[in-house]
Amino acid sequence: xxxxxxxxxxxxxxxxxVDVARQLSPMEKIRLGSVxxxxxxxxxxxxxxxHKQEVRNRIIEMEKNPEICLSWEEIETKIRL
Length: 81
Prior knowledge:
The chain has helices at residues 14-22, 26-38, 49-64, 72-80. The chain is mostly helical.
């Protein structure tokens, strides 16, 4: 039986669904995460106002003091060290 073509006609609670997902291999979990993310409408994601404000504050700080920021290339270099 091909494990990717299983059809379930059993109602599952969210907790049961999570329990099933926990049984997946690491690669299957990554694939599942990708599928779920691709099918998520970005307009349905609720970002808390406090998080939005933090981003705004960081942008303002970056614009006031650009010398404190690193380029993406500098970040990549630091990560690889």
